[in-house]
Amino acid sequence: MKTVVIGVIGADVHAVGNKIIDYVLKEHGFNVVNIGVLSSQEDFINAAIETDADAIMVSSLYGHGEMDCRYFREKCEESGIGNIKLYVGGNIVVGKHEFKEVEKRFKKMGFDRAYPPGTKIDAAVNDLKEDLGL
Amino acid sequence: MEAFLLVDFGSTYTKLTAVNLEEEYIIGTSKAPTTVKTNVLDGYDKALSRLYQDHPEIDHISGISACSSAAGGLKMAAIGLVEELTVEAAKRACLGAGAIVKQVYSHHLTKREVKELKESDTDIVLLAGGTNGGNKECIIHNAKRLKEAEVPFPIIVAGNKDANDEIEEIFEGTSIEYYIVDNVMPQLKKLNVDEAKHIIRKIFIDKIIEAKGIKRAEERIGEIIMPTPEAVLLAAELLSNGYEDIEGFGELMVIDIGGATTDVHTIGEGYPKRTEVLLKGLQEPFAKRTVEGDLGMRFSANALLNLVSNYNFKKYFEVDDQCNHDIDKSLNRRSQDVDFIPHTKDEEEFDKAIAKICADVSMSRHVGHVEVVHTPLGDMYYQTGKDLTDLRYVIGTGGVLIYNQDAKKILQQVNKKSDKALELRPTNPSILIDKSYILAAMGLLSQKYPRTALKMMKQYLL
After folding, report:
1. What CATH architecture is B1-71+212-222?
2. How many structural domains does chain A have?
3. Of chain B residues 361-390, which have a CB less than 8 A from chain A?
4. Which residues of B touch A2 (CB under 8 A)?
């Protein structure tokens, strides 16, 4: 069974989406490690190390996602899990931007996938299965 | 008269407590220096004859129960993966079993670390790492390293269960004595230390006691059933929970300031008390023990100035203290002469200040704290550790507090402080002193006679 760490990053307390992601991933047979809201990069990484996770899925709804996600990949590399799949989704930037631009920015930061607001979780699940070779 | 005897082979003294089980009172106590180097029974006999001398009414010993912290107590090494998670879980298992944790290692053990471990005076190694189904590569690597080095201590394997088969293959047929038990952190942040604690106690009884030369005592007094700190923790737990129809004290703390360490035990969940507070970090044990190796009255006195500046040290003297203290000199004197006993007013006041620092700093480390997070939905708080604001009783034990006139004043240091507003310290607890020094004895007694032990604690803690 593949393990995914999910949670809401930074000073963000939006819990509903987090619960939905948890539910859907479990339905699809993933072992979900949900670290909940108000989680730091270190919380995600520590959880991923102990549970030997295959992917980390970061949620952010309050607009500060870009700040919160900075150097996430570098920290993974530093912690010995540099190859882990990193996903991010939600309202991940402040203001109105072309999502293609936003996606590019996050990919440059080392995220494998980035999703705009309103994405159905199923889309991410399909990508996840593809990326993990399921 | 028939007496039930409780024996504590302490690091300095062998202490005896004689209890009248029928009428539920303490007949008397006695002590004599612990004699591990020659024959541990010498000290015991001396204490026993003193007891008989003082209490000629005792004509029959109906039973004996004993604990020990002699010959350095129980020393353990904790190994895990991530420092805040399985390393911390492993440490808590050791501390909860009454051990002192001297060596702590995270991630992959290096050859240098294993060498250091092998040369140390460790009694037992606790090897953890990974949640069940999680990382197993690290714990397997560490098991291999321990095997290669032929580490001479018993190893308790309490990590990711998926790794157990492989670890068993690694250790099988070697000289290594190993025990496989439940994972101390089976799921992320979930603490599960009971089985590990149980096996630690078993190894302590079966092996460690013997290695320390205390086993001889068993010819006469039967099995030594646990390390002394565990007995204290069990007593605290019983006193907090109550037994059958006898009500307990609820959330409480036991603090023991010693010559070398300060031990703090708290019983209680310590969950957040407000809805805007979120719990962070590894689950806290219901009965939690922390040991501060750098906070003590004598052996570690010199270390105090690393924690408290000379300027701040002065704040711990009483307001009406007229003495002229030379802080450096006084601390030095105590760490050089660990048997130092204060005689003058000046020396007593200085000891009191040290005790206050021990109480204050050990509290800061034991208690939970909050951090403010400014979110778009208003301020939220993270809580790490236990919220002890509603804690009702603080109980002082150990030589320093028992014999000090101002013990209650010293213990007030654990209370809420304006300059430590983010620490979730007790707000207004009642302070009790273990005047007759019976907590460890009652922990022992509670194994067979919980009802009597509880009733007596309620009676003898003042």
Report:
1. 2-Layer Sandwich (3.30)
2. 1
3. 373-377, 380, 382
4. none
- A53 vs B contacts (CB less than 8 Å): 134
Q: What is the extent of the structural domain holding A85?
A: 3-131
Query: Domain with A71 in it: what CATH number?
Result: 3.40.50.280
* Nearest alpha carbon to residue B389 among B256, B269, B236: B269
Nearest CA in chain B to A4: B134
- Interface contact B82-A49, CB threshold 8 A: yes
Lowest mean pLDDT among B226-230, B305-309, B373-377, B425-429: B373-377
| Predicted local distance difference test score (pLDDT) of residue B216 | 79
Q: Is residue B305 within 8 Å of residue B299, measured between CB atoms?
A: no
- C-alpha closest to that of B423 among B373, B371, B374, B375: B371
**Pairwise CB contact (< 8 Å): A12 & B375:** yes
Q: Which of B82, B106, B107, B384 to mutate to test the interface with A (most CBs of A within 10 A)?
A: B82
Interface test with B, best of A34, A50, A54 (most B CBs within 10 A): A50
Which strand (E) or helix (H) includes residue A100? helix A99-108
The CATH number of domain B75-207, selected from 2.40.10.10, 3.40.50.261, 3.40.50.720, 3.30.1330.10: 3.40.50.261
Q: What is the pLDDT of residues B176-230, one digit of tens each?
A: 999 999 999 999 999 999 999 999 999 998 888 887 778 878 878 887 889 999 9
pLDDT digits (tens, 9 = 90+) for B72-88: 789 999 999 999 999 99
Domains of chain B: which residue ranges? 1-71+212-222, 75-207, 252-433
Burial track B21-53 (b if 16+ CB lie within 10 A, e otherwise): beeeebbbbbbbebbbeeebbbbbebbbebbbe
Average pLDDT, integer, range B142-147: 97
ipTM reported for the complex, 2 dp: 0.85
- Report whether A128 contacts A87 (CB < 8 A): yes
Nearest to B133 among A31, A62, A63 (CB): A31
